[in-house]
# Entry
Amino acid sequence: MLNYALKRLGLAVVIVSLAMLMLFCMIYLIPGDPASVALGPRATEAMREALRIKMGLDQPVWMQFWNFYIGAWSGDLGKEVLSSRPVLTVVLEQLPFTLALIAGGISWSVALGIPLGCWAAVKRGSLADRVVGILSVAVIAVPSFVIAIYALLIFAVALRWLPAIGAGEPGNPGDQILHLILPSLAVGLGWVGYIARMVRASMLEVLEASHIRTARAFGLPERQITYRYALSIAILPTVTLLGVGIGQMLSSAVFAEIVFARPGVGKLVYDAILTRNFPVVTGAVLVTTVLFVLLNLIADLIVGALDPRVRSSF
Amino acid sequence: MSEAVSSPPARQSGPGRALRRLLREPLGVFAILLVALVVFGAIFADLLTQYDPTRINPRERFSPPGADHLLGTDQLGRDLFARVLHGGRIALYVALVSTAISLAIGIVLGLIAGYGPRWLDNLMILVFDAVKSFPTVMLALALVTLVGPSLTAVMVVVILVNVPGYARIIRTQTIALKTSEFVTAAQSMGASSARILRVHVLPNVIGPLVILASMDIPVVIAIEAGMSFLGLGVRPPTPSWGSILNDGFSNIRETAWIAVAGGLPIIVTTLGFTFLGETLRDVLDPRLKGRG
# Structure
């Protein structure tokens, strides 16, 4: 297991390094000078030159990458253009809002997806099963930003049941949760479908297993068999599915944050693009990428710990 | 010589038979209707409405849906029905062109990785994983910051998102075929690598990939609409479902119908293509079940 964990960790480091290299190439090798991009079209040549030296753009390319690379690993992602605050601090300030949003999305997807999948498996082949199947595919297919806009339109603007804007009053958990309901629904609804499908498939498998047959032979009530013995095993694969899911929810979170005007990393990047705050864009993209790789790593390690076959095939 | 060592026939499933089985599934019929609706609307956009999707008419701004304007007008008085129909052209154009390019690049890279030397395979897999490690939206945001919003930027994002997955599928299947008897036989008869890949490997690996790629079409349409919604895709005044949705979002407190008009075609198209892909996959190749 330790061997597997070390190999997997090494791979994650290599992937993050490669991602950094790509990000670096995107910034420095694509036509368009970052200094002019940052300063906008009305800057003078002297201003550009000064910024170029300040950003280290006068050094050779490999030297620039090395500085960027070493800096990034030690947490130095550069400084914000306007306020000169460290980019890492700025990004980390916004990160909790995004993580809360994703946690909300997971809550929705688990709270709805597991019962639906379980129900469909128990009623296998019935109309209910078919409806759950079609609904699962439908919520996976529809993009989260359309769900976000329609949720905003229906529940916030038309019915006025829930707040439309912001993250709620700081220090008021009730208000914050109220502000989290709609955006996290937009983030998590698609995953209700994934989880329902996953739970249904693995429930069907588990219900065929011999220990369930034994339980039936002992005459245990069907309800107890389903929920106590079958479901507790059938939800295990969901854990690893969520590892991937959290990463993809990061993408949906960007839209949810913009639509509901919530603070967060996605909103930060979007605003940074509009204001040409270039280092913030790179920094935030890098932090979310590391987060994404880290979550996949954790999911893989959990699977590896549970399933020796995965370890040996690596 | 190819007669002497012919590769096993790629799965023969007559298109006619598949279509008949598809039409027996109610969901398949429903999906075909939705997709046909969108394609028909996009192709005959000019005949279905006399309005110009980009013509501004301040006197008719925010007209509610009615006989004159089926879906109403937006904040500049442009007819939303015309914009939705013409937006369909953009969406389908991006979906088809960028999926075709991703397929072509993915197939070539996958064959190289699967058939080439081991070190090259390892390196390519690493690069694919690294590209995939960027969350899609973050990749799009970073790229557009540099090259500016355009349809090309949207397509580049789609290609970057799709190619690693396609290449991996082709690679895995190529590796499986590499040691098969008919490939060894072709090698022993002195066939070049290019010929082996083209004649013996490609026909056997391409089928499942095309099904998976067609199932990605709704995802591509979502990426185009999403980027246009954020103002990172097509430039105004070109109509795109995403930009209509954005107009609706900006005016959501005044009127609801702009947002509804922008979201509806996205829902219809993604549902249509997804249901079509799901039923097609089950009809054509049950082995792929659960991989979408």
Q: What stands out?
A: Chain A has a mean pLDDT of 82.
